[in-house]
């Protein structure tokens, strides 16, 4: 072979090497936008283009180009189908559908891994049971003989079964449970076609906020941890570990942004999904129903084990998925390290998003958060905070008198600490006129009786500030 031919062969070989280096890498991500727990693993990353910020462009990625594909779903099952079919690389969903994801991959001779929690509650808040607004149902005991709908094989389904059994109610004999997706359950509640509905984030609160349902049971009462998180095709993760870490770093930044400006990003969620900002803030704002916590706390590992066991009892899977192998936190630990964050310190931190605020009425710094109330005034970028419901109600009267429109009023449940829509809460006043908020009527009544107080609904509680002010 002459020199000319040698050079041609060498040039051809080098061109193939260049093509390899210039690989176009597909990153296909499945989201659940309306399931707002997934926002920091999907919606916010996509809308703010955070993944692009962290994708690697050195080493083996020096000449790579990225083809980022996003696809939105309303539930985990179809998302899982596309992941198993290699149409998606990463997806976000709750613990129950996440277990089914792992089982589906296993059945196909493949593997997926749970790489992070996005948001959840070690108490179980987020799942809930609602009834029509005019229903007389106030407790689980009142559900006997009633028809209850729930999305089958969901985290809310598991919560419902455990809650009923804990109250001595046989799910197979004492109630009628039917399957209904949230988009079907909403109209059914409005027309009285169902007597109760159990659901996951954000529907128990969303239906209540929209004024056609009343939440009377929160998953925290079952004390069963629940979470949403992100999974990845294990083959993709092994081939492109740096991209998985980049995805997690994007999620970490999304979480930090939401913590810094919860109202702003609650508005973004509303803009994209139609889920009202007031509901997004209820879940993820300061002292919210759930925590945006990425770390694999023991409670979330147990939640995954419980979901697998429950799904087997429901005969939705026969998989013996090993949770210790299914969860892989080393990508997350690498992402924390790259972001100069201490993973082990966060693993021990169970605090909800903190509230750092002054009472909007008195100007004094709020230090006791047990009786905090908040008011979101239309046209104001920030939610007003108050040290007590009576302080909030006193200011509320002045705001309304001045012509201000109120978007929402929040209170904190005295028993569990969860954030409530004050309009649908029950209140108990003590002998000094101080107000304490509760999700359940029976809990408020019991507190009132034990403290020489009285039971009040929202309208009655709003009259209390005048009494307090007179003292």
In brief:
The protein has 471 residues and is α+β, with helices and mostly antiparallel strands. It is 41% helix and 19% strand.
What topology does this entry show?
Blueprint: H1 3-21, E1 24-31, H2 43-48, H3 50-54, E2 65-72, H4 76-84, E3 90-94, H5 95-107, E4 112-121, E5 128-132, E6 147-150, H6 155-166, E7 176-179, H7 182-190, E8 196-199, H8 203-209, E9 213-218, E10 226-233, H9 234-239, H10 241-260, H11 262-273, H12 277-284, H13 298-313, H14 323-326, H15 330-338, H16 343-347, E11 373-377, E12 384-386, H17 389-401, E13 406-412, E14 419-421, E15 426-429, E16 435-438, H18 441-450, E17 454-456, H19 458-461, H20 464-470
Parallel strand pairs: 1-2, 1-3, 6-7, 6-8
Antiparallel strand pairs: 3-10, 4-10, 5-8, 5-9, 11-12, 11-13, 13-14, 15-16, 15-17
Helix pairs in contact: 4-5, 5-13, 10-11, 10-15, 11-12, 17-20
Task: Please describe what this structure looks like.
Helices cover 41% and strands 19% of the residues. The chain is of the alpha+beta class. The protein has three domains: 3-120 and 227-347, Periplasmic binding protein-like II (D-Maltodextrin-Binding Protein, domain 2, 3-Layer(aba) Sandwich), CATH 3.40.190; 128-222, Periplasmic binding protein-like II (D-Maltodextrin-Binding Protein, domain 2, 3-Layer(aba) Sandwich), CATH 3.40.190; 373-470, no CATH class. The strands form four sheets. The chain has a five-stranded mixed β-sheet, sandwiched between helices. Helix 4 runs parallel beside helix 5 and helix 17 crosses helix 20. The longest helix is centred in the middle third of the chain and has 20 residues, at 241-260. It is globular, with a radius of gyration of 25 Å. Residues 10-20 and 465-471 have low confidence and may be disordered.
């Amino acid at each position: 072979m002459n020199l000319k031919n040698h050079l041609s062969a060498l040039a051809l070989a080098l061109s193939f090497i260049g093509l390899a280096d210039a690989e176009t890498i597909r990153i296909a991500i499945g989201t659940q936008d309306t399931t707002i727990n997934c926002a920091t693993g999907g919606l916010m990353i996509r809308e703010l283009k955070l993944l692009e910020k962290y994708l690697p462009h050195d080493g083996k990625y020096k000449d790579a180009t990225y083809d980022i594909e996003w696809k939105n779903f309303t539930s985990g099952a179809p998302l899982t189908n596309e992941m198993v079919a290699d149409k998606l690389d990463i997806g976000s969903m709750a613990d129950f559908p996440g277990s089914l994801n792992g089982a589906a991959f296993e059945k196909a001779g493949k593997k997926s891994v749970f790489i992070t929690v996005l948001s959840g509650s070690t108490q179980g808040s987020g799942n809930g049971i609602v009834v029509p607004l005019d229903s007389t149902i106030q407790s689980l005991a009142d559900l006997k003989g009633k028809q209850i709908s729930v999305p089958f094989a969901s985290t809310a389904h598991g919560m419902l079964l455990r809650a009923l059994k804990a109250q001595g109610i046989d799910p197979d004999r004492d109630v009628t449970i039917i399957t209904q997706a949230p988009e079907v359950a909403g109209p059914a509640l409005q027309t009285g076609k169902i007597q109760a509905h159990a659901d996951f984030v954000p529907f128990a609160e969303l239906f209540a906020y929209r004024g056609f349902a009343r939440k009377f049971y929160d998953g925290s009462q079952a004390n069963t941890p629940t979470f949403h998180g992100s999974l990845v095709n294990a083959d993709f993760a092994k081939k492109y570990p740096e991209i998985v870490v980049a995805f997690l770093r994007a999620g970490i930044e999304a979480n930090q942004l939401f913590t810094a400006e919860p109202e702003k990003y609650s508005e973004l969620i509303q803009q994209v999904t139609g889920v009202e900002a007031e509901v997004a803030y209820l879940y993820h704002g300061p002292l919210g129903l759930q925590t945006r916590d990425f770390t694999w706390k023991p409670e979330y590992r147990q939640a995954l084990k419980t979901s697998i066991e429950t799904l087997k009892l429901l005969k939705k899977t026969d998989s013996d998925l090993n949770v210790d192998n299914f969860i892989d936190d080393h990508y997350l630990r690498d992402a924390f390290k790259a972001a100069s964050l201490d993973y082990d310190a966060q693993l021990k931190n169970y605090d909800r998003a903190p509230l750092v605020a002054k009472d909007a009425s008195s100007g004094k710094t709020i230090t006791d958060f047990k009786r905090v109330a908040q008011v979101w005034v239309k046209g104001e970028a920030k939610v007003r905070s108050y040290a007590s419901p009576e302080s909030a109600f006193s200011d509320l009267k002045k705001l309304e008198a001045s012509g201000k429109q109120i978007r929402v009023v929040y209170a904190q449940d005295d028993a569990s600490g969860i954030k409530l829509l004050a309009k649908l809460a029950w209140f108990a006043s003590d002998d000094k006129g101080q107000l304490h908020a509760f999700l359940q009527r029976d809990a408020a009544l019991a507190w009132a009786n034990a403290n020489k107080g009285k039971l009040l609904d929202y309208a009655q509680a709003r009259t209390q500030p005048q009494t307090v002010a007179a003292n």
